[in-house]
Specification:
alpha/beta, 8 helices, two-stranded antiparallel sheet, six-stranded parallel beta sheet, 38% helix
């Protein structure tokens, strides 16, 4: 078999997309919290890669709202309320396959395959169940700071996947949408990276250079 012996996948915005409208979800969050909206989905996306390792999704949301407030020059005191409201409104099971995802998974069914996600086990399992992927991987690595598995680009989740699959970094390809988390994290360990750009165009020079750049997940067989 040519190519990598193992392939690891990110989940959010790589294998799946969220069905809930981000614009509507954010607007409803501010409305229910009784706070004047000070950020757009693009503003929130712009702070995601700066988020520290946290214990829960709600803490992550709180950071995003607080940092977006700071950049907008407004008071960040409402961040905990906004995070809790957003978390309550978010339906983790409302996900669909990203175009090409099913073809990509079929293309690697003769290799060792793992999921390496920055989400928690509880929320990500809801998504996997909705997608019918609970038994699709030989190993599944969730973010669990309490167990020492911090979010990508930290090496721990990648190392856990390599150990579980019984492969070396040089034998592995990681597929993901985030330059900061997926590409940088994989590259640092000597794992080849296949970058599937997010739906919004990335402008300017790339902060981290992927081994492969895919226009769609359906193109994955071309780099195997």
């Amino acid at each position: 078999m040519a190519g990598p012996a193992a392939v690891t996948f990110d989940l959010d915005h790589t294998l799946c997309e969220h069905d809930q409208s981000h614009d509507e979800l954010l607007a409803e969050t501010f409305e229910r919290a009784g706070v004047e909206q000070y950020c757009t989905p693009s503003d929130v996306d712009a702070v995601v890669d700066d988020a520290p390792t946290v214990e829960s999704d709600r803490e992550f949301f709180e950071f995003c709202f607080a940092e977006a407030a700071r950049r907008a020059g407004v008071d960040a005191d409402h961040a905990p309320t906004l995070a809790a409201t957003y978390d309550d409104l978010l339906d983790h099971s409302a996900v669909s396959f990203r175009p090409g995802a099913e073809a990509a998974l079929s293309a690697v069914d003769d290799r060792r395959v793992a999921l390496v996600t920055n989400g928690s086990e509880q929320t990500q399992t809801e998504k996997l169940e909705a997608l019918g992927l609970t038994d699709a991987f030989d190993a599944t690595v969730f973010c669990d700071p309490a167990a020492g598995i911090h979010a990508k680009p930290d090496p721990a989740p990648f190392e856990c996947a390599l150990d579980a699959l019984g492969v070396e970094p040089a034998e592995t390809l990681h597929v993901g949408d985030s330059l900061a988390a997926d590409v940088a994290g994989a590259n640092a360990l000597g794992i080849d990276s296949a970058w599937v750009p997010p739906s919004q165009p990335v402008e300017g020079a790339l902060d981290h250079e992927p081994t492969h750049r895919l226009s769609s997940l359906a193109d994955l067989p071309s780099v195997l």
